[in-house]
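pasting for ref. prot 1 ->
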Amino acid sequence: MALAIEQIGKYVSERHAEASANGLLTAGEVAKKLRKMSGEKITAAELKPFADEWHHGGFYKGGSGSTMGRTYFFYPDTNLTELAHKVLAERAEPIVTRYFFSAGFERQIGRDGRKRWQPVAKFEALDCKTDDYYPKKIAITQQDFESLKEFEGRELEPYESFSHFKERVQKC
């Protein structure tokens, strides 16, 4: 990745520098305009899902050394009124308990003494706004959650889907 140096002396990607030079607005700048326009305290973090594009925005110290952050950009012709309504609508969506199935992995020692990872069933009840908040988990009904929770940790067959797992454990 090629790096550029902004006027303030910070290393950013070349595309980040191009976006700034082309007049794209950062999420922070848009948040500031929305706060003035609507009177609501809207943060740049709330605007991330609605951004038009993002670019690497400089180095910062992370948990595993030095990493690059992201800067989210909006086109100058973005309809700020519509954007404010979207952010406020997302805030208003209630947080409810949703139920999920996923594959977890347990470390097992084989007969030969070597480690291997066995996929196992994992059930979770999480508080979130939508089912797609956790894309790698499969949303299930509360009834399925309650009836299958006792089978948590049961080994999964290779590439087994939730419906096949449900059928298999209910036959037992």
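and prot 2 ->
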Amino acid sequence: MRKALPIVLAAAVLLWAASCASTPPEEPAPLPETELAQAKELKAKADLYKLGPLAQAEYTAAENDLKTGEDAYGKDNAASKASLDKAISGYKAVIAKAGPLYLGTLQDRTAAAKKAADDLKASVAVKDDYAKAQAVYDRALAAKTAGDLEAATKDFEEARTLFEAVAKVAAEKRDKALAAGSDLEQAMKDSAAVAAEAQAALEAEKFGE
């Protein structure tokens, strides 16, 4: 029995050694390249439309998470990925909260330009161009409802420019019409004065006879 004990122990040691040898070393976490690219893309979108001040707390948190993720990148990839995932969620929250506020401001500016055109009866005075402006404005409203920040921004800006243009043309037409009416009124006054003078002269001539 005593002779068998060393043999059993040796076998156990061999089995333990074989088990350790067969266990592969743990693979390091891969670089979170996709997460880093997505976080930077969302940050660029938020910065392009200056959304940070409209959702300051969320934006600051996302910025800190992005920096932490970048600092750990290539050193502790698991920690880097975790921070970048938080940054992605943070920037999405910024866009979701601030995007509608930003588009609301653009809509208000465009609506003001539209009202100025309406006050000048541009839909009648510049019918075709006004219709084009209205179509772009309607498209912008639909894009805003759909949450399409890029399309809504583009269309609101274009619609505002178009409404301002038709308002300018309508104002010019109104001014010309007023000037023409003023000229006509003056001409009628002048004509009446001439007629009065002629009548007075005729009456004076008859009186002299």
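Residues 33-176 form one domain.
The first helix runs from residue 4 to 22.
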